[in-house]
Structure of Cytochrome c domain-containing protein:
Amino acid sequence: MVPSRSSRWLSALLGPLTLTAGLATLLTGCGDRTPPGEVVVMRACRICHGTERICADIGKLDRAGWEKTVDRMIAGGANVTPEERIVVIDWLSARKPGDKPLCP
């Protein structure tokens, strides 16, 4: 069956949306309501750091401080993509001391 002209048009229109939805699913984990930044922190940062270490800087670092810290971790080998870098920095810079579930 040959796709109709309207279905090709719709595919062309929805292609970028599908890619965006796919990235969102990848970052959030299949319908999970966990914020994307938290997902990446739990996956990438906790390989080397316990939550206590991460939480030690929450509320002490501003956005610029988190940018510097995250960039240093990436330079040291943290497995974080450029897109994930942004959501991690957004998420960490918005946290407050004692925020759950990350910080006890």
About this structure: DSSP finds five helices and no strands in the chain. The longest helix spans residues 5-28. Confidence is low (pLDDT under 50) at residues 16-22.
